[in-house]
């Protein structure tokens, strides 16, 4: 986190890079996977690592980006957490100019739908994105109301670096937020 740099340009930390590299190294099922990513730096850095293992290019979509928080810019952690709580608690209201949670959910669901329509039905697909819109997507596929209780910081490991497995056609949540270190090769069978 660097208040002098716009949030979408923040990269992975050294710990984040090491965790991502370890995940990729022990995930042979990534070979041949189609990799979609947000255009934001952290997501792209993860996607590029996965695509290096996959052997496929990274396909990006602006609509896979994190919820738009540009109205407030960087917020100190305690203030950010308060805003995030309010974002999830009132999904049809903007929190100090932030994109509404319901609008962000509609955007990420439409983006994932379009991405999946562009690949064969039996393709292995990896989406590299962000915690809030990931939670909104997860709530959609699980048939749950929008809730911060479903966020990766509540269900997975702290500090990001989590994934979940879903079937978009059903839709169904198959495996909830899981830290990279606990994602097994069976996810890619």
UniProtKB/TrEMBL annotation:
Pfam families: His_Phos_1. InterPro entries: His_Pase_superF_clade-1, His_PPase_superfam. It comes from the Bacteria. This is Phosphoglycerate mutase.
